[in-house]
Amino acid sequence: SCGSCGYQLNLNSCNRNTSVIGSKYGKSIKRGIISFFAIDESRFTKTEGGLFRRRTKLFCYKCGNHIGNNAHKEINSSCSPRLRKSHSLAWDGICDHRIYDIKIRALQPSSSEDLSVST
User: Fold this and answer.
1) Pfam families, from UniProt (predicted)?
2) The domain 13-84+93-111: what is its CATH number?
3) What is the pLDDT of residues 72-111, one digit of tens each?
């Protein structure tokens, strides 16, 4: 949830970019960044920008706190150029070009009450 106002951002660890866990993990954590392949975009407001790379700043929908960035990056260089350029193919979960970099210091842990499911 948002570190400023507590608004649920619905970040899911199943959508984390675990490919950076390894040699680059320490560098990523030192920068205070957690990467995700997918987020609930309805929980954020966005501003577009960037001169050479398309970059989107992500803000908390409720309070406007800067949460992170969405950079359009190459995730898997082994994907064929034909697959990367084709818009007619369904998303395979591998060749997408979006990574959401979320600032750890902009978050607060969700309480167990927020995560409970009523039966």
Assistant:
1) At4g08330
2) 2.170.150
3) 655 444 444 443 443 334 444 444 567 899 999 999 987 6
